[in-house]
Amino acid sequence: MDTLQYTNGWLNLENNRIDEINHFCEDYKHFLNAGKTERQCVKAAIAEAKQHGFRPIEEFEQLVAGDKVYFINRNKNVVLTVVGKRPICEGIRFVVSHIDSPRLDLKPNPMYEKNELALMRTHYYGGIKKYQWASRPLALHGVVVTKSGRTVDIVIGEDPQDPVFTIPDLLPHLDKKVQRERNAAEVLKGEELQIIVGSVPMSFDDEKIKDKVKQHILIKLHEKYEITEPDFISAELMLVPAGDARDVGIDQGIVGAYGQDDRICAYTSLEAILEIPTPEQTAVCFLVDKEEIGSSGATGLESRYLEFFTGELLIRQAGAQYNDQMLRRCLWKSYALSSDVNAGLNPLFESVHDAQNASKLGYGLVLTKYTGHGGKAGSNDADAEYVAALRRIFDDHEITWQTGLLGKVDEGGGGTVAKYLAHYGINTIDAGAALLSMHSPFELASKFDIYELYRAYKTFYTEAL
C-alpha cells in the first residue's frame, strides 16, 4: 500500500549523480548571469537551440516528425518545438515558463539633478519588497532605440571594472520620524526608488547650463553610446542586482541568484527540449514575458500568441486541410506544465505555511494543484486524472517530486500562467521548484531540485500520459 511520504533527494545519492548535478548547475549559473532580462534570455536560448539543429519557422514549408523549429515574438518570447510522430492536431506537450522577473524600470524621462547629484527615477516592475533594493549595487541592462531606428544594447555594472548604481537609504541615526513610523511596505516608497548616476559636474563652465552634473552624464552617454536624453523615451532600461549567481552554504547545495523566479524553469525546460529524441506528441518549450505583472501585453500569455504559433505549426503540417476547429481540437487535446516556482518552507517564518502542504528545498519537483488567493480565486485547479497521470510517469522514472501550496489559506497567495493555458482547454498544472526569498534580489534554490526539474521536463515531453 502506498504511503504519502516525501523524501530529501540528497539522501543516498551516488557520487556520479552529485557530479552531474553540480556540473548542470554550473551551466545554469552561467545562464542566470547572462540572462538578466527577457531579451537576453531569448538571445541565449536561440543561440543554444541553433547549436542543436533548431531553425526558424520561416524555413519550413512542410513539417514532419523530428523537425526542430523556433519562433521569436518581439525578442521577448521564444517557442522551441520538436515535431512529434503523431499529427500535431492530436495535441501538444507544452512546458511554459516565464522569463521576466521583478526589477526596477527606468521611467521614460528619468534623469534630473538635485543637490549636485544626478539621479534617475524608476518604476518598480512586479511584486517587490521595496526596501530590499536600497543600498545595494545595481546594474543597468536593456536597449535604447534611437529615432533613426538604431538599437543600442546597454549593460553597465556587471563587469568588475564597471561602475554600479545604488539607491541611497537613510542612515539609522536620522530615520526615526521619516522611516521607522512607516509600515514595512512603505519603509521605502515607490517614488523614492531613485538611483544615483553621477556626482561630477562637467569640466567647463557654461552659465547657460544649470544642471552641470546631469549634463556631464549626458555627455558621457553620448560619447559612448551616441544617445541623447530624448532617446530614453524609446528605451527599455532596467535596474537589476549586480553580480553573479553564487553557491550558498558550506556544502554548496544551494544556488543563490537574482531571477530564479522563473528562469530556473526556463533553463531546465530549455535544456530538456534540446536533448529529447523525436517524441510521440509534438513538444513545445514556451518562454513567455510579463507574468510578473499579470501576463498582459502582446508578449504576455494573455495575448493570443499561443494560438498564432500553434496555428502556424498546424498549417505547415495539415496544409489545405487546416481549419480553425483543428486548432481548437489540438489545444483541447494538449497537456501543459505551467512551470513556475513555489514558496519553500521558510525556517524563520514557518507560521505563514501549512507545513503539511508546503514544499521544501531538496525534495524535488513541486506539483501545485492550484494557486490563487481567497477561495482559489484566479486559480486553474488541475483535474485529478491529470495529476494521477503525472504521478505515474514521474514515479516510473524515479523523478523526485512533492506537492506544495502557496502558504496558508488566508495568508496571501498568488497566480501563474496556468489559468491562461487552461482557457484553451489544455490540461494544465503548475510544476516547478521550491524557492526561499522569492521575489527578492537574491533567491535561493536547491541544486538537487534544479536538476530534478530538468529530468521531470524531459520525462513529460516524451512519456505517454
Automatic annotation (TrEMBL):
Query: EC number(s) for this protein?
Result: 3.4.11.-
What UniProt keywords are attached to this protein's entry? Aminopeptidase, Hydrolase, Metal-binding, Metalloprotease, Protease, Zinc
The GO molecular function terms of this record are:
aminopeptidase activity
Q: Which cofactor does it need?
A: Zn(2+)
- What domain of life does the native source organism fall in? Bacteria
| Alphabetized Gene3D superfamilies for the sequence | Aminopeptidase i, Domain 2 (2.30.250.10), Zn peptidases (3.40.630.10)
Q: What NCBIfam families is this protein classified in?
A: PRK02256.1 (NF002600)
Record family assignment: Belongs to the peptidase M18 family.
Q: What protein name is recorded for this chain?
A: M18 family aminopeptidase
Q: Specify the species.
A: Photobacterium alginatilyticum
